[in-house]
Write a structure and sequence with these properties.
heterodimer; A: six-stranded antiparallel beta barrel; 12 strands; B: 145 residues; mainly alpha; 8 helices
Chain lengths: 216, 145
Amino acid sequence: MVATHRAMVVGRIEPNGVRMLGTCFILNADGLVATPYHVVGPSDDKLVVIPSGFSDINDYQDLSDNSCSTSPVKIANVDPARDIAILQMSVKPSFPLLPPLGSIDDANVGDQIEILGYPHCTEGRRALTLQRAEIGAKVLLDNNKLKSKHGVLNTQARPGQSGSFIFHPGQKKVIGMLIGAWVPGPGGISLGGINPRELHQTTHCVSAHHIAEMIS
Amino acid sequence: MTINVPDAALSEWLDVLMPYQREQLQVFGAEADPEKAAEKWVSTLGYDNIANFGGSDPTPFLELLKAEFTQFICNEEAYAPEKEELSKHGDVSKLVLVTTVSSAIGAQIGIAASVLVPPVAVLLFLVGRMSINAYCTQQSELNDD
């Protein structure tokens, strides 16, 4: 059963409503939530999450309905180098038991995984979307000599999907969090807000054990 | 009003941090140059070859943090309520000192306190090591340059 209740939109309240920043997902019954640091930045002023509001992925989502209920969150912890932020909900969720956090170590290259998030939410579209893909590779990324474990997903991801959780149905664990698309370097061009360099099937997810390290 | 910042080993200050924060500061070279390691911790954002989806690139705040930290330490009139609260308890633990300073500065510059805890721990180590007067004199000379 797809854990629709686990993935949420994270946004910031503005005068005209909520600006959706990306995807986040619930980590535990204490109301801790994970999302990339680049999605929320260092300020939690007016930061909120928007629960999905439905429990069956087969339910129709009315895209013309712009109403939502929000829940305030605060930044509990950050890891800027690995691009992870842990948020604390002010109201603890009451959900069924959630699959535990695992690691990219739990997967084999070629394994099928599920990605649950909100593609294009940064452009105003709030549609919880399930994608299936394969783990294409396991890689280590270096940042000032700090190594991070990543999985490469054979799928194209788009803005809004940062923060989507990666579920391994065989292991029944959340093994990663979607961070973004590989690019050869800075620069490129923008066509209608799209950088063609990002249009490919080389999407990165950070291993969920790096998230677990941040939870006391 | 001034606060008391103990002269303690870097490891004692880093003990207030979570293990992953301590380990990263060590990887960033905290033993050799703690200030540079703290700067790397704050300024490193994600990965060079990963395009960030969603959100927006956070505005750099390192210089703002340093300026406001100097205010806290060196300006006797700044952050009076927080300093008074700290002074009521005599020698407070490093954890209390780090979290109090991080919360106070964070509220002022609009940054979550938890984001500031690791660099503030390092900055307090530097102040404790060189003394408040020496730190403030150094900062004043840097500003005059």
